[in-house]
Design goal:
Helices cover 29% and strands 20% of the residues. The protein is built from three helices and four strands; from the N terminus they run βαβαβαβ. The longest helix has 13 residues.
Length: 92
């Protein structure tokens, strides 16, 4: 049914926008988790980034196009890198 178990879908936009459509069977079923920050504003984002800079917070990220989301999850599960995988929209 879904091929890949586990993973987290993070919906954490800095400004309030509609949630993009999801295909539940492939993107949410099979022990996947959804995390969100539903009330973030641009000012919240600015404040967070100011604090992060003040305290030297650094994030390790690895960017994948959305069309390669399964590859990103596979790489995370296999421990191919430390940090977070970030999906960027390459679908029109």
């Amino acid at each position: 049914m879904c091929g890949h178990r586990g993973g987290v879908l993070a919906n954490a936009g800095i400004h309030l926008t509609d949630t993009p459509p999801l295909h539940y069977e492939t993107e949410l079923f099979c022990e996947k988790q959804v995390r969100s920050a539903a009330s973030s504003t641009r000012e919240d984002g600015r404040g967070f980034l100011t604090l992060a800079a003040r305290y030297g917070v650094r994030a390790t990220t690895h960017t994948y196009p959305l069309s390669r989301a399964v590859e990103a999850l596979t790489d995370l599960k296999a421990g191919r890198f430390d940090g977070a995988a970030v999906l960027v929209n390459d679908l029109s």
